[in-house]
Design goal:
- The chain is of the alpha/beta class.
- It has 15 helices and eight strands.
- It has an eight-stranded mixed sheet with strand order 3-2-1-4-5-6-7-8, sandwiched between helices.
- α4 (59-70) runs parallel beside α5, α6 (111-124) runs parallel beside α7 (151-166) and α7 (151-166) packs parallel to α9 (206-227).
């Protein structure tokens, strides 16, 4: 009987996933939460675990960091704005009663700052249970990072790769550990590209550049899992659905206004991220997966994008990112 109910729930879940409006909005979140009878996040105890998260000062990152603090984790906020970061740190300590919230300052567009941040995290924490790549923003104008890379590519593709690499020994020594990447459903619209990963000035469209970077993130997540399969470090990527965050409101005002009542709250959007960090069941029994609402999902919805996902392009992507980061797996 239990198996039958589980099968029925899986079928209904797949039906919800087909129309994007029911899958990505708060309608999908609320339906799946009841359908699968999710374990409450409040039931997890993360005491003793160290979690480092980028982009923790607003939106999904702040919602996740607040939840980690409430669950007793030692939380390391990695952000670039000193005043805002300290303010969020103080806020989380006060609201959670957990004093084990600290911060490391780093602009992820500056790879020297990434290296410094990795050193500070390693020096300050004898273990690292979860590393979360959440930082990212959608810009409607092309901007360049200090190293010359297009900013979105630098911050959301190369910097997470570099930070993972620099913290690799700490993650391995803390196994079973996890590296989680917050992606976006926008990546479904584009294929895997390396030569055109960085859009030029003449053709630049912020939403498409963002989607290209997110596609690269999801592909690299799978490749990390494949190349480090016996390390005890588990890699997962996810997308939060369509959430009501300051970034979405600023970058996509028409989209935000049109779907306003149906957008997920930051806490709803961060639910699967927190679950992947906290639960010792499916997240540690699998590796290299892509998730939405606590279920593994396909990384392609279109035949056109699937055709671009070749072994050759994957190798090219890894080699290009490793070269840009100045680090590769031993």
């Amino acid at each position: 009987m239990v198996q039958t109910l589980s099968n029925v729930a899986a079928v209904i879940d797949r039906m919800l996933e087909v129309p994007v409006i029911t899958s990505f909005t708060n309608l999908g979140y609320l339906a799946r939460r009841r359908l699968h009878d999710w374990q409450s996040l409040e039931s997890y105890d993360l005491t003793g675990r160290v979690i480092a998260i980028t982009g923790p000062t607003s939106g999904l990152g702040k919602a996740a960091a607040a939840q980690f603090a409430r669950l007793g984790a030692e939380v390391v906020l990695v952000a670039r704005d000193p005043a805002k970061t300290r303010s969020v740190q103080d806020e989380l300590v006060e609201s959670s009663g957990n004093s084990a919230v600290s911060h490391v300052l780093a602009d992820l567009a500056d790879f020297d700052a990434v290296r410094k941040a990795a050193h500070q995290i390693s020096e300050g924490h004898p273990r690292l249970d979860v590393l979360i790549h959440n930082a990212g923003a959608l810009s409607n104008e092309r901007r360049t990072a200090p190293n010359g890379l297009e900013l979105t590519t630098a911050v959301q593709v190369v910097a997470p790769f570099l930070l993972t690499g620099l913290l690799w020994e700490r993650l391995q020594s803390s196994a079973p550990s996890r590296v989680l990447t917050m992606s976006s459903g926008g990546m479904y619209t584009v294929g895997l590209t390396v030569s055109k990963l960085q859009m030029d000035e003449s053709s630049y469209r912020g939403a498409e550049q963002y989607a290209r970077a997110k596609r690269a993130q999801v592909t690299l997540n799978q490749m990390w899992a494949e190349r480090t399969a016996r390390s005890g470090v588990h890699f997962h990527a996810l997308h939060p659905g369509w959430a009501d965050t300051p970034g979405v409101e600023a970058a996509l005002p028409r989209f935000h206004n049109m779907l306003g009542p149906f957008l997920r709250s930051p806490a709803q959007g961060a639910d699967t991220l927190v679950w992947l960090a906290a639960d010792d069941g499916p997240p540690l029994a699998t590796n290299g997966e892509f998730w939405l609402d606590r279920q593994v999902r396909e990384i392609h919805k279109l035949t056109s994008t699937r055709k671009t996902d070749t072994a050759e392009r994957r190798r090219h992507l890894w080699d290009w990112v490793a070269g840009a980061a100045g680090w590769d797996l031993p």
